[in-house]
């Protein structure tokens, strides 16, 4: 039977355990204190024997080590890099080539970081190593420097091209270029950057094959360009076919380099314009008569064709690449016929000049502008049998937007400024051409007082919205109105001329009677700033007779026609305002 421990042994065991515990606690505190002290002693300092790219930075804080490294590498970082490119020498600025040193990263890589890692603390007190500085690259700067080297020492690759000059094919053969390989060049420059006394970096050019090479050019010629100019393309409209030839449509074609191929490309707007020149797109165009080289000539009517431009664009490239006999493209379309046909225009029998009349006017720039603009709008008017000409409808409102300027008109018996002054010169000229062509007078109004440059009793004035010149073509033939103006100058009068072209139907003669019923002018005093003085003259009545003699088989008879005109006196105007201007 085992002996029971004595009661006095237990206290001694407890005392021993406590001693051991205190001893262990003391040792832990001692080593902990030493570890903490070692950590704070090391801090973020670099291990004592550390070098980076040959520069000693050990034992210093990270910031100070970075400064020492920057100072130690300054000569290497700032020196040029000697380079030979296929035997040609040059020197590169490292910074301009995108090379630089990341000093903080280099120090951190060498161990210059604060840490509780015991290995890091051990290395600080006992170790240290040699490493290379961390080189960083600015890709944009490097690529720019590489491009400059390629421009200086290399040659640019040239894509082959295929194009058109009318119905002929043009081509440019591809050219292989020479350029530096970016990866090899960067590796060589980085290697030499921080070396001690590096030898010149030998760089070699490599061939650069163009995106579009000879095989791509030949493929474009065979598959598209050659067929494109081989024959015309027939466009099928409802009821008619239209051929467009290579010289017409090639301005709308191109072959564009895309992903290493020459891709046929269509300028849809240009093609639509080309096709539109072959047909009358939109509404039909009526036939008419124009003067060509001084003679009346029928301008044929054109049917109108409406087609879908998107449908033309979608199918044309495929059609133009097909072989002969298959180069057709049917288009959905609508064809409208003209109301006035070429046959109708010929039936007008506008063959000869049946009347012409000139009037003359003194120099004034507003007259040149306004009379010239009115003639431009009247010229080329065709009156079919039974149609009535209206000067106001033909010329339109006299506005600046319509090409007119301010000039003098007669209002309430005196001269005032207004837009379109001078247009009555063209009204008088047109009236007289109508008079001697034997056309029917519908509406005309002489000037209120007589203007001596106009034929007495045979003249007309107009005012927009109030007074018009109208006459009807009551002959069986069409009438083409020709109007033109020779501008006045400070030393010469201007001339307005209107001619009527048709088949002569009447031989017109005229007589002018004597003046009668004279009336005396008054004197008017005007007290406005804008006042135009005038020396008055008498008013009077006068009669003009038009006689009709039928010609060219005309069997009609017509009574003599009397034109009675009453001219009021032109009053004497006295400007009483001291600031009055005759402007």
UniProtKB/TrEMBL annotation:
Keywords: Membrane, Transmembrane, Transmembrane helix
UniProt domain YoaR-like putative peptidoglycan binding: residue ranges: 224-323
Membrane spanning residue stretches: 20-42
Top-rank taxon: Bacteria
Cleaved signal peptide residues: none
Protein name: VanW family protein
Organism: Nocardioides hwasunensis
């Amino acid at each position: 039977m085992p002996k029971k421990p004595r009661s006095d042994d237990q206290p001694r065991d407890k005392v021993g355990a406590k001693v051991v515990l205190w001893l262990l606690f003391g040792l832990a505190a001692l080593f902990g204190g030493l570890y903490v002290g070692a950590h704070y002693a090391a801090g973020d300092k670099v291990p004592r024997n550390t070098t980076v790219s040959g520069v000693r930075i050990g034992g210093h804080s990270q910031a100070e080590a970075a400064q020492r490294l920057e100072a130690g590498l300054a000569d290497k970082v700032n020196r040029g890099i000697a380079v030979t490119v296929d035997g040609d020498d040059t020197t590169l600025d490292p910074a301009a080539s995108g090379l630089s040193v990341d000093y903080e990263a280099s120090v951190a890589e060498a161990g210059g970081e604060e840490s509780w890692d015991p290995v890091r603390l051990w290395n600080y007190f006992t170790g240290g190593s040699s490493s290379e500085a961390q080189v960083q690259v600015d890709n944009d700067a490097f690529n720019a420097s590489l491009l400059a080297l390629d421009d200086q020492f290399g040659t640019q690759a040239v894509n082959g091209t295929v194009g058109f000059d009318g119905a002929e094919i043009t081509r440019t053969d591809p050219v292989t270029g020479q350029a530096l390989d970016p990866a090899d060049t960067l590796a060589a420059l980085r290697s030499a950057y921080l070396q001690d006394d590096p030898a010149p970096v030998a760089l070699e050019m490599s061939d650069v094959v163009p995106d579009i090479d000879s095989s791509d050019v030949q493929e474009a010629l065979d598959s598209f360009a050659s067929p494109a100019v081989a024959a015309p393309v027939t466009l099928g409209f409802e009821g008619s076919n239209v051929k467009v030839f290579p010289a017409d449509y090639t301005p709308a074609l191109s072959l564009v380099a895309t992903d290493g191929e020459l891709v046929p490309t269509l300028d849809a707007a240009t093609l639509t314009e080309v096709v539109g020149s072959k047909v009358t797109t939109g509404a039909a165009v009526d036939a008419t008569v124009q003067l060509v080289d001084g003679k009346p000539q029928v301008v044929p009517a054109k049917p109108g064709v409406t087609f879908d431009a998107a449908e033309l664009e979608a199918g044309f490239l495929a059609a133009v690449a097909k072989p002969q006999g298959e180069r057709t493209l049917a288009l959905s379309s609508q064809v409208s016929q003209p109301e006035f046909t070429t046959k109708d225009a010929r039936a007008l029998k506008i063959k000869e000049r049946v009347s012409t009349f000139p009037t003359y006017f003194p120099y004034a720039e507003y007259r040149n502008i306004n009379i010239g603009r009115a003639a431009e709008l009247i010229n080329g008017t065709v009156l079919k049998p039974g149609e009535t000409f209206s000067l106001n409808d033909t010329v339109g409102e006299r506005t600046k937007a319509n090409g007119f300027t301010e000039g003098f008109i007669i209002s309430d018996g005196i001269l005032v400024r207004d837009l379109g002054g001078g247009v009555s010169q063209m009204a008088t000229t047109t009236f007289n051409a109508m008079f001697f062509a034997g056309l029917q007078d519908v509406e005309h109004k002489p000037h209120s007082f007589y203007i001596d440059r106009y034929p007495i009793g045979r003249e007309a004035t107009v005012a927009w919205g109030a007074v018009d010149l109208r006459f009807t073509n009551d002959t069986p033939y069409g009438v083409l109105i020709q109007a033109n103006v020779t501008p006045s100058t400070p030393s010469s009068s201007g001339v307005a001329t209107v001619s009527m072209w048709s088949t002569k139907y009447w031989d017109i003669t005229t007589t002018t009677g004597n003046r009668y019923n004279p009336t005396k002018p008054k004197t008017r005093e005007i007290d406005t700033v804008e006042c135009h003085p005038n020396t008055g003259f008498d008013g009077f009545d006068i009669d003009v007779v038009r006689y009709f003699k039928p010609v060219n088989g005309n069997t009609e008879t017509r009574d003599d026609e009397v034109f009675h005109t009453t001219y009021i006196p032109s009053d004497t105007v006295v400007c009483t305002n001291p600031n009055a201007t005759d402007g």
